[in-house]
């Protein structure tokens, strides 16, 4: 019987493992199919983590996290978790690939979310080399340059405003005439002098070479006219796919409360609606989608799990 099972090996999962083991829990296992690190390992540059002044790639940035966590006794099992269930005795069963199971007294799920791809020609080829899904992460690298933003929701418009403060010009491309963002945000975007709105249009292709993105081809949905924008970067904000499959039972029903968008509902202690089950990082509701925030979530979840287990030991 594990004291704590951690599902997911990104910043939230690793931070949870560090705080749980250093906090005194002895049997803590992190289930992660690949090498720990999470989405940030695919980033070419990481420069906005407080206290880390050197600019490094995501893989190098996350490498010390693994060594530090494992030093305190965190174990890593490279196996896929299929689902989690709470049993009648108050403990949990972790169902693993290959008809294996493990049992745990508490569980932290930190499986994150995956930025939804738009399915544009060239998107996968140039992802990380001019195609990005995080303006706060990568916007600075386009300081004084022109960029494009694809999307029409709150995130797309908010990130366009952020980029407009850094870049010389932002082309905001949306497939509809109207935006699906808050009216106040839409007004700010319309009033911004260096944001050009390209509505009722589609990005047909992202072009580039060995150096990365060089431009995008935009097609007007009404006239069919195509226009090529010469620029080194495009930010895609067409939604997120929450990785919440492990929280569904055999019938496909969630075992805890989730938002309409599939994010896990938690309180400030990262507690879900199921006692002993915690969620942290990008998969939880209102997550800021930043490494430092995910790490904080993981630490909070671990401390909450320790308090939960101590309460049950009395």
From TrEMBL:
Belongs to the class-II pyridine nucleotide-disulfide oxidoreductase family. Its EC number is 1.8.1.9. Binds 1 FAD per subunit. One of its GO terms (molecular function) is thioredoxin-disulfide reductase (NADPH) activity. This is Thioredoxin reductase. Its cofactor is FAD. It comes from the Bacteria. It is an enzyme of class 1 (oxidoreductase). GO terms for biological process: removal of superoxide radicals. It catalyses: [thioredoxin]-dithiol + NADP(+) = [thioredoxin]-disulfide + NADPH + H(+). Pfam families: Pyr_redox_2 (PF07992). PROSITE patterns: PYRIDINE_REDOX_2 (PS00573). Keywords: Disulfide bond, FAD, Flavoprotein, NADP, Oxidoreductase, Redox-active center. GO terms for cellular component: cytoplasm. Residues 3-298 form the FAD/NAD(P)-binding domain. Homodimer. InterPro entries: FAD/NAD-bd_sf (IPR036188), FAD/NAD-binding_dom (IPR023753), Ferredoxin-NADP_redctase_2 (IPR050097), Pyr_nucl-diS_OxRdtase_2_AS (IPR008255), Thioredox_Rdtase (IPR005982). PANTHER family: THIOREDOXIN REDUCTASE 1-RELATED-RELATED.
């Amino acid at each position: 019987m594990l004291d704590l099972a951690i599902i997911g090996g990104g910043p939230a999962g690793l931070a949870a493992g560090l705080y749980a083991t250093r906090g005194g829990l002895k049997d803590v296992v992190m289930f992660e199919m690949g090498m720990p690190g999470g989405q940030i390992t695919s980033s070419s540059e990481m420069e906005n983590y407080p206290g880390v002044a050197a600019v490094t790639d995501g893989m190098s940035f996350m490498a010390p996290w693994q060594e530090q966590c494992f030093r305190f006794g965190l174990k890593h099992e490279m196996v896929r978790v299929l689902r989690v269930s709470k049993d009648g005795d108050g403990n949990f069963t972790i169902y693993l690939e290959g008809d294996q199971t493990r049992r745990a007294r508490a569980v932290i799920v930190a499986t994150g979310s995956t930025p939804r791809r738009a399915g544009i020609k060239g998107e996968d080829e140039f992802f990380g080399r001019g195609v990005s899904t995080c303006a706060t992460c990568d916007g600075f690298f386009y300081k004084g340059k022109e960029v494009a933003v694809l999307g029409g929701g709150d995130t797309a418009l908010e990130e366009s405003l952020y980029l407009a403060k850094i870049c010389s010009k932002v082309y905001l491309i949306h497939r509809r005439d109207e935006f699906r963002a808050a009216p106040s945000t839409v007004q700010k975007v319309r009033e911004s002098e260096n944001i050009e709105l390209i509505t009722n249009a589609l990005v047909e292709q992202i072009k580039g070479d060995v150096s990365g993105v060089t431009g995008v081809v935009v097609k007007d949905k009404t006239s069919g006219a195509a226009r090529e924008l010469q620029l080194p970067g495009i930010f895609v904000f067409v939604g997120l796919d929450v990785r919440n499959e492990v929280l569904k039972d055999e019938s496909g029903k969630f075992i805890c409360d989730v938002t309409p968008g599939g994010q896990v509902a938690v309180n400030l202690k990262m507690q879900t609606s199921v006692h002993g089950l915690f969620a942290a990082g990008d998969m939880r509701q209102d997550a800021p989608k930043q490494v430092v925030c995910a790490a904080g979530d993981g630490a909070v979840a671990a401390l909450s799990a320790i308090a939960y287990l101590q309460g049950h030991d009395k």
